[in-house]
Amino acid sequence: MKCTRCKAKAEVHLRAHNAGFCRPCYLEYFRRHVERAIARERMFTPEERILVAVSGGKDSLALWDVLVGLGYQTTGLYLGLGIGGYSDRSRETVEEFAAARALPLVVRTLADEGPGLAVPDVAVSTRRVPCAACGAMKRHFFDAAAHEGGFDVLATGHNLDDEAARLLGNVLRWQRDHLSRQRPVLAPSHPKFVRKVKPLYLLSEYETAVYAFMRGIPYVVEECPNAEGATQLLYKDALNRLEAASPGTKHAFVKEFLRSAQGLFAGDAARDVPGECQQCGMPAYGALCSFCHLVREVETKRARRAAAERPGA
Ligand code: Q46
Ligand code: ZN
Asked: What is the number of the ligand closest to the CA of 279?
């Protein structure tokens, strides 16, 4: 196959777009695609400061790389989840990426926060599934870091496969409140929140992997061990089968939802105006935000367990 742009020998074939690209043209295609998404959705401007949440995986590092290449002002944010060797390797990868390019990086480690909040420990203490505990803590630390650092925007590396799987899950259960927030740009609902954006929302996992490979970005290939068996993977698998039979399905699913249906749910989000958490001051829908609730639960349950284990108890 020949490159769709320059007619040289193609190195990558994108069935969903019925296009092929040589290496330089592919990198150009990817950059332009991100640039157009940023402009079309008014995600941010060159004057704004962007905090990029990086996990060490291909998507977030490809995003950071492409934003730097496009000249945006970026800072990376890495949150150490405390998930054994997986977290150690992710942190190393992110630190090496930032150091090699002299990019600013903020690192927070859950094990060092509050009473010690490594994901596996919090999951055991609160009898939650690890991903539920992890999700609540990630949201809190991302929001808090963006607010404390005075950033304008928080960018994440969610790609088309993530968005399609999330959409499928939301549609299967008709979760109107989730559908109302499923957008590539989320305006802040409180002065302490910042705008949240997903510049890769229409680029597939395959496309970001090819970009990372062609740019020579070392990334952590292994998935978080807790991802195994997650419902999200089941949806991704189903969508991959549909995509194989009918290329372009994922793209159409997400794009058409945003174009024709997402607005129908927008009213569901209008009521969501949070107050402030009495503990940490971040936005909250009750007296405490869900993160501070979680921390309190960890403290109470650990204290109870310690008391029960004391000799003579
Ligand atoms: S939520 Fe769950 Fe992820 Fe957290 S515990 Fe791992 S799989 S990292 S996206
Ligand atoms: Zn709080």
From this structure: 2
